[in-house]
TrEMBL record:
It comes from Kribbella sancticallisti. SUPFAM superfamilies: P-loop containing nucleoside triphosphate hydrolases. Residues 23-74 form the Orc1-like AAA ATPase domain. It comes from the Bacteria. This is Orc1-like AAA ATPase domain-containing protein. Pfam families: AAA_16.
Length: 103
C-alpha cells in the first residue's frame, strides 16, 4: 500500500524505516569505516566483526549497515549466524560472491 504519490517512503514500512534512520545517532567511526570499505576496490578487511554486550546497539548498527549498503547499490543478504554450521567452509558459502552483487 502506498500513499498519494506512491513513493516507497510513503508506505508504512518506508515511514518506519525512515524514522529509525533519523533516530540513529553516533557510531560515526564505524559507519565511516563501513562506507570506506564499500567504496574501496579492495577493502582493508574481509570480515567486519560486530560484538559487544547485549543492549549496546549491535542489531541497530547492523540495520544501519544494511541500509547504507543498500543505498550504495549493494544487494543486502542477512545471515543469522545461529543458522550457519560452525565450520569455515560452510560459513563461507553464505558469503561467497557477495562482493560481486553490487547493482
Amino acid at each position: 500500500m502506498t500513499g498519494r504519490h506512491g513513493s516507497p517512503a510513503e508506505t508504512l514500512g518506508g515511514l518506519l524505516t525512515a524514522g529509525r534512520r533519523q533516530r540513529f545517532v553516533g557510531r560515526v567511526a564505524e559507519l565511516d569505516l563501513f562506507r570506506a570499505a564499500l567504496d574501496a576496490d579492495e577493502p582493508g578487511f574481509r570480515v567486519l566483526f560486530v560484538h559487544g554486550p547485549g543492549g549496546v546497539g549491535k542489531s541497530t548498527l547492523l540495520d544501519e549497515y544494511a541500509a547504507v549498503a543498500g543505498d550504495a547499490g549493494f544487494c543486502v543478504v542477512r545471515v543469522d549466524g545461529r543458522d550457519v554450521p560452525g565450520t569455515p567452509g560452510r560459513a563461507g558459502c553464505c558469503c561467497w560472491g557477495t562482493r560481486r552483487a553490487r547493482r
